[in-house]
């Protein structure tokens, strides 16, 4: 990895060079009733709209590479014949500007399952292939537990990662595209005192974490506690509304529906991101529902994230961004659920 | 107009449909007419023999009856039974038809004679306790919403004509609201019935910063016990929550349960 430093005031030039492409980054969405700023990812047209000081966005950036709804294919029916069209929906490069480590790691995890398997997902792959990612350092929030999930720093999956050090940016470079980009702005090699400052920043960040998840032996504990009564307690709280999955940067499960238009000349197969907490997630042909009770569905969400994925990929599917807990009206948070299962008697 | 429609070479019959209205604002029917961009497509799908909002003719031969409105008079019950006898398929169109809708708000009052006097004074008018269609006849299909979402009606009618199974979303409005990346209304201090209300409206109201009023009725698994806690935690009074739950009649069972408990406690 190569390192560079550049003055913070140079960032606007970096942005402007990249702005030849569509840039998606954190923007202020509004304020809550207490006047606290709320953020989300959005298309950024003006550098001043980019809010790199954001805490956490309400939703992840996945709508830009794993949309909530997407047509898998469409059909044209004409003269007794039909024609199928597939559109991966990737027309232009996308710059993701200002992703935190958790969201970069989320992309790395999605890559493993959506691109690394026997049947890579071309809809995701096409969008991923044409992406430039600028990471940005963060200030851990009280609900962040990425450190427990090992996703508090990103080792790969970005082109450029910027760590703010007062008036300087410490840049980690992972791609030649990023290297050549930095050549176009006023930037230089860091000296040893700046190396030190960078390490101090990292250390300062580590001490800010409040929320933790004990992941030691978690896959085994989850297996042992499959019948634990705490699952029912969480299930009673759960609204089965799917909010957690919708805001999650790594939830990729989906359903498919077919739609025929009203004149019968076009049809399409639409994919919709779904949630394992929804009532009909485990309904199979014939109508049987394998998970009719709320707590069984909630449990499987945890088993997929913290057990199944770990067994398949030797890492959790959760990046500890805390969004699900923040959005859950029933206050179901990962640290509390895991702690309650671990303490189960 | 197209006749002899086929889909993948298979002939598809264009059913005769009639639109009917009981006590209602007829806004659901207007919703269909409002969709001018697809109106002709919709008309190619079905043969409309009766539609007071859009045509003079009033045919009496129909296979599918779309009925808007709730029952508030004895003669409406009779009319409804007649429609049922003629139609192969009866569709309750909109919240009034499905749950009684806004009309059923008057059922909250124990003394309906008093309500009648307050509203109509001495004007002679026949009005009774409000009922949804299903209280009088067998309803084959319900299309929810106040008003209905025309895109959803078009999808459902297409499926009907093609003989496909009709699916309503099994999840609450939150799912669609999150997909539209809205700020949660509760974060803005507003009450919202999104967590318990059946989706399908594409989070119409919350996307316009209006908390959900539950016009589509409860999702198949609505955690109303938890909703009460959510409201209480945010200082939203039970009365305010009940006002919403009572507004369209979809949550009638839950409302009755809560009121029953209250009366037991007295």
Q: Any idea of the CATH class of the largest domain in chain B?
A: Alpha Beta
The strand line-up of the biggest sheet of chain A is 1-9-8-7-6-2-3
* N-C termini distance of chain B: 64 Å
Strand order of the largest sheet of chain B: 4-3-5-6-7
Number of beta-strand segments of chain B: 7
Average pLDDT metric of chain B? 94
Task: Pick out the low-confidence regions of chain B.
Answer: none
Task: Kindly identify the CATH topology of the largest domain in chain B.
Answer: Rossmann fold
Helix content of chain A: 25-40%
Question: What is the 3D form of chain A?
Answer: globular
Largest sheet of chain A: 7 strands, mixed
SSE diagram, text form:
The complex is a heterodimer of chains A (345) and B (266).
Chain A: E1 2-7, H1 11-18, E2 22-31, E3 37-43, E4 69-78, E5 81-85, E6 94-99, H2 101-114, H3 122-129, E7 131-136, H4 146-149, E8 160-165, E9 168-173, H5 176-183, H6 192-206, H7 218-224, H8 230-237, H9 243-247, E10 254-260, E11 266-273, H10 294-313, H11 323-327, H12 334-342
Parallel strand pairs in A: 2-6, 6-7, 7-8
Antiparallel strand pairs in A: 1-9, 2-3, 4-5, 4-11, 8-9, 10-11
Helix pairs in contact in A: 7-10, 8-10
Chain B: E1 5-7, E2 10-12, E3 16-21, H1 27-34, H2 36-45, E4 47-50, E5 64-68, H3 74-86, E6 89-93, H4 95-99, H5 112-120, E7 141-143, H6 150-162, H7 173-179, H8 224-233, H9 238-247, H10 252-265
Parallel strand pairs in B: 3-4, 3-5, 5-6, 6-7
Antiparallel strand pairs in B: 1-2
Task: Please provide a written account of the structure.
- The complex is a heterodimer of chains A (345) and B (266).
- Chain A has one domain.
- Chain A has twelve helices and eleven strands.
- With 345 residues, chain A is an alpha/beta fold.
- In chain A, the strands form two sheets. Chain A has a seven-stranded mixed beta sheet, sandwiched between helices. In chain A, strands 5-4-11-10 form a four-stranded antiparallel beta sheet, with no helix packed on it.
- Chain B has 266 residues and is of the alpha/beta class.
- Chain B folds into two domains: 5-162, Rossmann fold (3-Layer(aba) Sandwich); 173-265, no CATH class.
- In chain B, the strands form two sheets. In chain B, strands 4-3-5-6-7 form a five-stranded parallel beta sheet. A two-stranded antiparallel ribbon of chain B has the order 1-2.
- Chain B starts with a strand and ends with a helix.
- The mean pLDDT of chain B is 94.
- The A-B interface holds A 29-30, 32-33, 38, 40, 58-59, 63, 68-69, 77, 80, 82, 236-243, 246-247, 257, 259-264, 273, 275, 278-280, 294, 327, 329-330 and B 2, 5-9, 12, 38, 41-42, 44-45, 154-155, 157-158, 162, 167, 170-172, 174-175, 178-179, 181, 183-184, 186-189, 194-196, 219-221, 223, 225-227, 229-230.
